[in-house]
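Look over this entry.
=====
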Amino acid sequence: MALSTPQAVIDRARRLGYTSVGQYSDEVALEDYNIVRSELSNLIMQNVNENYFSEIIRTTWVASQNEYALTDDINNVDVNKIENVRIKYSDDWEYVRATKQNKDNLNKELDYYNENQSESNPFYYVFADSIFIYPAITNEDDLWVEQNVTNWVKLEVSLTPTELIITDTDTLFPREYTHIIALWMLYYIYQRKGLINEANNAQGIYNNAQTELIIALSDRVSVPQEIATPNLDYYE
């Protein structure tokens, strides 16, 4: 069962634990949700692929500006690593792969590269939460006024999911496995009620679900044409 929002997962956890909103508030439940989602996301990155959560971002870039703040386009995630940067300097161009540079190794003033770096051989470097490309993109209209450009810079990035609010749509975590988050939230529900046996049982089911999640996602990454679908009947 695909649960695409924190609210849907929280509602499922409440149903599994026969718990009301009064007993398990949205505030507490959302905190538990984000803890469990983060734990499972880290497990996937450690055991399946460190770049499992990735995204291609096509940006709106300010013409003649070298800097682009990564947080402008990316919500609810942290950028782990920029895998590739591809740029085109005209609407009818193909994307050109930019070369990553270390700013400290550049031996000329940055203005020099805006004037002299070939558009067929751009480069970029990353500093703090921004990416810088050279040469800058220029895009003048018929009146010689610079216009911003959309989709001329394509960033391929690996991400770490960050906390969601209750109404967000989770676009990163594998949607067909979000019910596993509810299983570990069920453990928290039982712990707070003092139901130790039920909590231990929930922990065992969650541990099994974790294992099947990693196996299924590993098969998906290594042999995509032969995805193994775990038996999840006993989690319903």
